[in-house]
Specification:
With 285 residues, this protein is an alpha+beta fold. It contains ten helices and eleven strands. The protein has a seven-stranded mixed beta sheet, sandwiched between helices. The protein has a four-stranded antiparallel beta sheet with strand order 3-8-5-6.
Length: 285
């Protein structure tokens, strides 16, 4: 079973040290997502169905809204990962050109070989996260920002405007899809299916599915799951032990607590109770 060693959550997004040996379902995040091996055996992640190696010398780079998953292969021993879910708004607030971190082509390549400098920065951050004394917010945000700037300088397209042109067929400004997204957000606590969402914007199921995929790069179901998982993480971190997991499950549209627990474990890696127990919340600066 996957174990959360540390989780830090704040305006920067989320950091998670996960000792993983169980699969993650195909999912996506609104944040840009960077994965490093912390310790243990070499392994692999899948980004857009491509199997990519996770070693001491590589990093997995996942763009906002890009589907990815983890499959625990039988011959893989356990691996500890540092998973970073970084809010583009936080990055741009510290360095305005990084507002493009939310772009679906911010990272042109999903797997890169990192420099010794970046490896040292990752190891230092992991060491601080594992310290018995929690990092201060200033120290955490400073170290995290410096690491993300180093990664962005080496591997992102933030300086190359030509690389940020969307692929053929992508249409980010589809008014009906924007309306559908608003409908999903307003009804996140209710049972949702593709036909119902399509009907709300006066499209057939087939038309809606195609236009949604062209606009976001993911299917409607993956998008709904992304919103529910991110909302759950925020609520679990803010609850400070108050409110039952069952109550949160109902508020997010799950018929029972067991289904909600399996969903969170399949998308985040750990159960809601473990997430709440481990998370360290960093408030606004």
């Amino acid at each position: 079973m996957t174990t959360a060693l540390r989780i830090a959550q704040g305006r920067f997004g989320r950091l998670a040290l996960l000792d993983m040996d169980t699969p993650l379902a195909p999912h996506a995040h609104s944040q840009c997502h960077v994965i490093f091996k912390a310790s243990g055996a070499d392994s692999a992640f899948y980004v857009s169905e491509e199997r990519l190696p996770v070693t001491d010398r590589t990093a997995i780079l996942v763009n906002a809204w890009e589907p990815h998953y983890f499959f625990s292969e039988p011959d893989f021993p356990r691996t500890v990962y540092l998973a970073m879910y970084i809010e583009p708004s936080w990055m741009s607030s510290l360095h305005s050109p990084l507002h493009v971190a939310s772009h679906p082509r911010f990272f042109p390549r999903p797997c890169v070989e990192i420099s010794p400098r970046i490896r040292r920065m990752v190891d230092d951050l992991i060491g601080e996260l594992l310290s018995l004394v929690p990092m201060s917010q200033d120290r955490l945000e400073s170290d995290l920002f410096n690491l993300m700037v180093a990664v962005s300088e080496d591997f992102s397209a933030w300086r190359r405007k030509d690389a940020l042109i969307l692929p053929d067929g992508w249409h980010m400004q589809d008014a009906r899809i924007h309306k559908a997204i608003a409908y999903i957000q307003e009804n996140l606590g209710k049972p949702l299916d593709v036909a119902q969402i399509a009907s709300s914007v006066h499209l057939s199921r087939a038309q809606f599915f195609l236009r949604f995929k062209r606009s976001t790069g993911m299917t409607p179901n993956v998008f709904v799951n992304m919103l529910r998982a991110e909302t759950a993480c925020k609520r679990l971190a803010q609850s400070d032990g108050h409110g039952s997991v069952g109550q949160l499950a109902g508020e997010l549209g799950f018929s029972d607590q067991g289904h909600f627990t399996r969903f969170i474990r399949g998308h985040i890696g750990v159960t809601p109770s473990e997430y709440r127990r481990v998370v360290q919340v960093y408030g606004p600066a």
